[in-house]
Design a protein that fits this description.
mainly alpha
Length: 120
């Protein structure tokens, strides 16, 4: 059920190879409202308020925007695909994926992004 509701909230999430070049676009407000509605529907305590969810997603989007360009295209595509496959596409998913890839490879996307901006 969660997957189907979240799919409705994310019509802007592109799935093409060309789209992997840019940070995914997600309707944060819809995503957070859907998550809240799902909790209510399942009679669960709300895991996070809609306002807190929106703030967390914006923070993750901003962080993702700084490291996304420095990541290899294949890693960006994999992180986007993994998040979509989970059916939970949010900015937290690809951000975490890139951070994990960064840790595994021992590279620092944040440092690479800063280096690129210094040379522009």
């Amino acid at each position: 059920m969660k997957t189907s509701l979240l799919a409705v909230a994310m019509p802007g999430a592109e799935l093409t190879t060309a789209a992997a070049e840019s940070v995914p676009r997600i309707d944060i407000e819809s995503l957070c409202r859907v998550r809240s509605a799902e909790d209510r529907m399942m009679k669960l305590p709300e895991a996070q308020s809609v306002a807190d969810c929106i703030q967390d997603e914006k923070t993750s989007r901003d962080k993702l925007g700084t490291i996304w360009p420095a990541a290899a295209g294949s890693i960006r595509a994999r992180c986007r695909a993994d998040a979509v496959a989970l059916g939970t596409m949010s900015y937290v998913d690809p951000l975490t994926c890139l951070q994990l890839a960064d840790d595994i490879k021992g590279t620092s996307y944040g440092a690479k992004a800063a280096e690129k901006s210094r040379h522009r």
